[in-house]
Amino acid sequence: MSSTRRFVSRHPAACVGLVALALAIVSFAAWRWKMQQREQAVAYAITGGDATRAPDLLRRFGCVGCHTIPGIPGADGQVGASLAGLRERAFIAGVVRNTPENLMRWIVQPRSLSPRTAMPATGIDAEQARDVAAYLYGH
User: Fold this and answer.
1) C-alpha distances out from residue 114 to 39, 65, 130, Å
2) What CATH number has the domain bearing residue 67?
């Protein structure tokens, strides 16, 4: 008799518990994936951007050097605020209402909304900002 069979025959309650734990983990992972898909769909709907293009843009325009950005390896900057949970915030950079239009404007030309901000104009264009906004609202 194999050691697995011996364990199962001697500890059936433990096996049931392990199976229940495995099912709970799989169920949670499926729920989390579905929620992430929903968040990304909402982000697309409110911005019209393509979040799949954003990781490259965030790296190319230097955002990762100043900000911590969820889902972007190496984006652990501490100069600017973390961009985690941005969609849930009332204000962008503490100065302007958090709306998709304001976020996109902030990304393109932050000093038009806050002349004394340390955030530079990076050269990102409006369409690229739309993609970045979709990513940030979806993560």
Assistant:
1) 28, 21, 20
2) 1.10.760.10
What the block records as the tokens of 3 is 């050691």
As for how many domains the chain has, the answer is 1
Q: What is the pLDDT of residues 84-135, one digit of tens each?
A: 999 999 999 999 999 999 999 999 999 999 999 999 999 999 999 999 999 9
Residue type (1 letter), 82: S
Structure tokens, 121: 């104009």
DSSP 99-118: -HHHHHHHHH-GGGT-TT-S
Secondary structure element (H or E) that encloses residue 58, with its range: helix 54-60
- pTM for the full predicted model: 0.75
